[in-house]
Each structure stands twice: as structure tokens, then as C-alpha cells.
Amino acid sequence: MPRLSPTLAAARLPQRAQDHTPVQRVRWALVAMFGLFGVVQTSWMGRLPSVREALGVDSGQLGVVLVVAAVGSLIGVMAIGTVIVRWGSGVTLWIGMSGTLAGFTLAGLGTAAGSVPLFVVGVLLNGLVGPATNVPINLEAARVEKLLGKAVLPQVHAAFSVGALIGSALAATTSTLAIPVVWHIVGVAVLVSAARATLIRRGTALQDAPRGRVPKPAEHESRRRGDRGSALHAWTEPRTLLIGLVLLAATMSEGAAANWLNLAVVDGFATREAVGAIAYGTFVVAMLSVRLLGAGLIDRFGRVAVLRVSGISALVGLLAFGLGPSLPFAWAGIVLWGAGAAMAYPVGTAAAADDPTKAAARVSVVGSFGSIASLSAPPVLGLLADSWGTRHALLVITVAMVVSVSVVGVVRPERAKS
């Protein structure tokens, strides 16, 4: 089975053509892991109307509750680099899997008991451990891209979209069958965790065992100082910060759909929860379709052109959804919005990882922008939803999309400096 070093910058994979099979195994392991992550992270959001009812809160209060997860995610993404370097990717994934299971179990029990504090503890824990899956997979996928010489991140994120689509279908099914939301949340978490544990245990995912000589303690300390310095320096790089803005807009766009699209359809068009779940499924299908084509689109047209068209599509789609006079018109907007939201995160992550020697620090920094977006968007949209309605509140995201389109030139490939 393929094994990756616990230190991303020091890990080695075979680079000769005849040794590409192990790299491909790692590639598909990453795809499978991210697909499972998509299922568990999005399926419960298709039941948000039921969660809101079970907890006895309004949209504004629900937005404040959801921001707790983003606070946990921001803390987690800032600490996860140290965890990966110290304990390895395999251990980090075990932490992510176990924490997600515990977090969603608590959140599910919170809905059953009508306890907002218990639900908050659950989503906070899930937010904290989310980067333990997201960050190492993105970093390793970016490195596999370099070894294979072709785009891989769009496929990895396509797997997340497949997972989100499955999760949306599960939400629509359990809602239609009137299955209590607690059984949905806890059941999905248990099943996905079992699948993730199987992947890790069988060695088809990332492993902890490093190869080569063991560095001396003094070398470990030198590396730690270097890693800290590199991370701090990344926050002063204009290109990295602008890529961060692209990811901020992408996270706001995709995250708003995951958190609020269901409620926006249900409240805005007075329809059933299952229809809202299907609407989010439509968003995911549109996003998935583009991500499956993403590698070819990037190879043919380049990063900048792909992101510019994507941003315009998301902007038009958001306007159509927020201002559309009917559900069919708004549904067309959902398709454009989903298609436009597909490529910004994988392309931005790949751009941040152009220089392998600085990839970990830069990917961590741009990922922090995504966490900031997750932290700020839910309460703002929740408060606006109470005043304007959820559908119209989503129009605020168009501002971020305009900024993103204006700076997409920063994702042009950067050569690593020797």
C-alpha cells in the first residue's frame, strides 16, 4: 500500500513513470476520503428546517448557532499544520473521523432533546476537527498534482460534491419518510465513520510511517522554527492574500448554498422541505458536472479564464435566484450558481501550492480565509434573512463574487524559486 510521510514537505512519492501506480492509489484514496467527508458534512444541512423547529429558534438565531461551527473551523485550521507535522496524516485523519462522529452525535442528541447548548457543543466539535480531514487531503492532492503533471484537485473536490449530492438525497428521503432528524444526523455520522475507518485501517488512505532516516532532535527543532517562520511570512505575501480573497468568496458562495439554500427555497416559495433538499441537490449536480470537466478545462483554457467565467456564472445565478419571480426561474439561477461555484476552491488551493517548498504555509493561509468567510457569513445572512427573507439575503454574496472576479489574475501558475 502507498505510504506518505507525516511531513508533507519532506514526504516522497515515486516520480518515475513506472512508479506512478502507487501515486494513483494515493490519488484515489484522497478522492474516496473527500467524498465521504462531503456526505457527512452536508447531509444534515438538508434537514435544517427540521433542526430549526426541533431547537425552537428562528433563522437569525440559527445563523448564530451555525457560526459556532465556523469558529471551531477557524481555530482548527490554524492548528492543523502543527498536528500533521507532529503526528502524521494518518493520525490526523483518525482525529478528524472520531471528532466528527462525536460532534454529530452530540448535535443529533441536541435536536432530540430540544437543547440548543448541546447542539452548539456538537457543531463546535465538528468545526474544530473538520480541518483534520480537509487540510491534509488538499495538501496531499496538490502534491500529487505535481507528481502526475496534471490537475487532480478538481477531481478531489468533485468527489466532495458527489458526497454532498448523496447527502442531499439522504436528507430528501428521510424528510419525505418523516424520519426524526436525530436518527438522520447520527445515522449518517456512524455509517460514514465506519467507511472512513475501513479506509484508514486497510492502509489505502494516508499513513503515518515515514521513510528514510529519522531526523535528529536538533533538526526537528530547526524544522519547527522554519515552519513557523514560513507560515508567518505567507501572511505578508500579496499574491497569497489575494488568492485568499478568491477562496473567501468561494467559501461564502458554496457555504451559503449548503447552509441556506434549502431554507431559502422553503421560505421563499412556500414549498416542502424535500423540495428544498432537491434544490440543493441541483446546486451540487451543477457544481459536480463542472468539477468533473475541470481538469480538461484548466488544461485547455488556463486557470484565469476558467475562474473568470465561473465567477460571472455564479454572480448571474445568484441574481437570478434572489430576484427571480418564480421557482422555475430561480431554479435556473441555482444551476448557474452551482456551476460558477465549482472551480474557485480547487484552483485557488492549487495556485497557493505552486511552490512545493511553501505549499503548506500558503494553503493554510488561504484556507484561513475560507474559515473567516464561514465565521462571518452565517450570522450576517441569518440576521438579514429575518429582515429581508432568506432568498434576498443571499444577494449579499454577490459583492464577494465581484471582488473575486476582479482579482482572479493572481492564480496564474507561479514557478518555484530555487
Could you tell me the number of beta strands? 0
Spans of at least 5 consecutive residues whose pLDDT stays below 50 are 1-19, 203-229
Helix content: over 70%
So what's the overall shape?
Answer: globular
Structural class, please?
Answer: mainly alpha
Give, in order, the helices and strands: HHHHHHHHHHHHHHHHH
Instruction: Give the oligomer, counting copies of the same chain as homo and different chains as hetero.
Output: single chain
Radius of gyration: 20 Å
Give the strand content. under 5%
Measured distance between first and last alpha carbons: 32 Å
Summary of the model, kept short:
The protein is mainly alpha-helical. The protein contains 17 helices and no strands. Residues 1-19 and 203-229 have low confidence and may be disordered.
Describe the overall structure.
The protein is mostly helical and 418 residues long. Helix content is 79%, strand content 0%. The two termini are 32 Å apart.
